């Protein structure tokens, strides 16, 4: 039986707490089976089309290797090289690609563009990052915390910095998992209102606590996990200089980590800028789990691919 009841996976807020837990369990099982030497091929012969309108290292390689390991294959479609770069409508593109492939992944700017792909494609569509959400990242993040800490419920996760796509997804995911999620941002850089509301409504019934604050030290206090992302996301390059000033007090450094629990984990979705959002002494310390976290993108996404692509769905 499929875990997700929708054709597509675009937002963390579409999951119930049970669906999130089931996806993480499936990811853990797939990882354990692979590490034990089994090669299951549930997506034999299936093809994933991957549309990238922004750069990527992890997302591209983890989706492609995930498809290959599951018995299928993947096609990288750059926004520049396809007719999308010359203005072909996304609606035509989504319908045409659905004639060739069994699933689509899209990384793009406006979230509405990913929603349009989902609307016009007859095959499942996965959000590989939009300006609004990065839900595959949050799946991998929770998988990583669960592997190391054994559980999620009740842990305090402090996200420090820009209330961006990564923060939006993490806020909702943490709330679905019953965590205490605190997001500390400068004024004006809070997570998206819709994401905060989704996290708050997810917290009803899971025992989660969701807080948006401006003091990074308050957020980091007794945290089990300290998480940060870049201050300037893809597409915001022109704001870089202003952001360096606005976020100057939000670096995750030794002074800040001193407030966290002694066995805190440091997490970052990568790519990272040492000396900006995180000090080298933190990201390169024994507390940092960023490489394991990046590795878990593969396993979390394989669970998603198996769930969405191995059973036929109604559009
Ligand atoms: N974290 C993440 O999505 O990395 P890429 O931009 O390299 O895909
Ligand atoms: N917030 C970052 C994440 C990159 C993986 C961005 O959107 O550029």
What does this structure look like?
Pathway: Amino-acid biosynthesis; L-arginine biosynthesis; L-arginine from L-ornithine and carbamoyl phosphate: step 1/3. It is an enzyme of class 2 (transferase). This is Ornithine carbamoyltransferase. This protein has 315 residues and is an alpha/beta fold. It has 2 domains: 12-133 and 297-309, Rossmann fold (3-Layer(aba) Sandwich); 137-294, 3-Layer(aba) Sandwich (Rossmann fold), CATH 3.40.50.1370. 41% of the residues lie in helices and 14% in strands. The protein has helices at 17-35, 58-69, 90-98, 111-120, 135-149, 165-176, 193-203, 216-220, 240-246, 254-257, 280-283, 290-309, and strands spanning 47-52, 73-78, 103-107, 125-127, 156-160, 180-184, 209-213, 225-228, 265-268. The strands form 2 sheets. A 5-stranded parallel β-sheet has the order 7-6-5-8-9. A 4-stranded parallel β-sheet has the order 2-1-3-4, with helices on both faces. Helix 2 links the parallel strand 1 and strand 2. Helix 3 packs across helix 4, helix 5 (135-149) packs across helix 6 (165-176) and helix 5 packs across helix 12 (290-309). The protein is globular and about 55 Å long. Bound molecules: phosphoric acid mono(formamide)ester and norvaline.
